[in-house]
Amino acid sequence: MTKQNSDSSKKKNPGLQLIAGGTAGFVESSICHPLDTIKTRMQLRRQQSTLNAVRARSSLMEPGMRPFSSFAEPKLNVLKASVESKIPHARAQAITATLGPFGTAKRIVKREGFFSLYKGLTAVYCGIIPKMAIRFLTFEQYRETLQSMVGSPKNGSEYSVSVNLTAGLASGLTEAIVIVTPAEVCKIRMQSQYNSLMDPAQLARRKYTNVIQTAITITREEGIGALYKGIVPTMLRQGCNQAVNFTTYNIFKKKVLEIQNKKDLDHWQSLLLGGISGGFGPLINNPLDVVKTRMQKQVIRPGKQTKYTGIFQAIGLIYKEEGVLALWKGLTPRLMRIMPGQAITFMTYEALSSSLIRRGYFNS
Predict the structure, then answer these.
(1) Separation of first and last alpha carbons in the chain
(2) Do 348 and 28 contact (CB within 8 A), yes or no?
(3) Concatenated DSSP letters for 301-324?
(4) Helix, strand or coil for residue 46?
(5) What single DSSP character describes residue 78?
(6) In whole angstroms, what is the distance from residue 297 CA to residue 308 CA?
(7) What is the C-alpha separation between 186 and 207, in angstroms, rounded?
(8) Which residue blocks in 45-100 are alpha helix, DSSP H?
(9) What is the pLDDT along the chain (364 residues), one digit of tens a residue?
(10) Cα separation values, 201 from 145, 191, 204, 295, Å
(11) Whose CA is closest to 349, among 17, 29, 126, 4?
(12) 3-state secondary structure 202-249
């Protein structure tokens, strides 16, 4: 970056924030979307303990189906052998995979094809490009406004931690309301479809085909409010994420610049610091992300009560049925998705901003 960028970085042109932020979102989603699909599938998978509970209830009618009983295993083996003998291809079609991210990815690719990892990408594009544009624009604008309210920075070029934290929180809440919630409802509906992209028959029968068709279908069948299911946990998640993300990034950036006695970060430094700062939010708010995913997956039917009705009810029910660790489902792929995603986002934003300013565009 150039000195000109450093001097003008305090108050960037809103047009620059929109273009650089939107471009950063496009690049980041194009690279990292498969990890988001894996995360969503892991969060929607029910724990084996829940299935065992169902089998236990069934055992009241069929003693031989009691799990873990000494006499149940032979009967289950006989039943399994009987099914496999009548359906020769049943064993061949069975796909074993661990519950981890790599096993989940393997199972998706095996069952549905490689490009199934990119399900919902159109919804992501429609969401993340304006989301990132709104995120960086509102963060910069909120930060300028808040700093003017509390007084000028000490050295004229820095923002206080409290200002960065509050501006990040407000930015996250804004993006959640304006774009993130409806885009993620569409994305999750598309990602949760277990159709194979390798089977033309299944492909033709899929309910959700693209983001526009998905939004129209949801609105027609469930009402416009269905696009805003899970808005409260989404707001809490996005607000927490951006508050932590922007604050830690700017703290790290300040420290590195002080140590190196420089005015600007190198691009690889923006990449590294962006990735590190992106990991803090998910460690704190993963239960909110699980609840959000479960609520947005639900289909609203007239006269029927949905299983998950609110944040605390959902958290309690998931804990009761699946255990506390279920609230941290998808954390590994979420970190694998968010950390490189934030690294790419910050590097792209900083690099494009620097390049556009250096070329004489958007000079304040």
Answers:
(1) 17
(2) yes
(3) -TT---S--SHHHHHHHHHHHH-G
(4) coil
(5) H
(6) 10
(7) 12
(8) 48-58, 72-86, 90-93
(9) 444 444 434 567 888 989 999 999 999 888 888 888 888 788 777 644 444 544 444 443 344 434 444 444 444 444 445 545 554 444 444 444 446 888 888 988 988 888 888 887 877 787 788 889 999 999 999 999 998 888 766 555 578 899 999 999 999 999 999 988 998 888 888 877 765 555 666 666 778 888 888 999 999 999 999 999 889 888 988 999 899 999 999 999 999 998 998 888 899 999 999 999 999 888 888 888 898 888 888 887 888 888 888 889 999 999 999 999 899 888 887 888 789 989 999 999 999 998 888 888 876 5
(10) 55, 18, 5, 29
(11) 17
(12) HHHHCCCCCHHHHHHHHHHHHCHHHHHCCHHHHHHHHHHHHHHHHHHH
Q: What is the pTM for the complete model shown?
A: 0.67
Residue where the block lists tokens 């995120």: 135
Query: Residue 295 is encoded by which pair of tokens?
Result: 């609520």
**Residue among 9, 233, 273, 32 nearest 132 (CA):** 32
Token pair recorded at residue 142: 């909120």
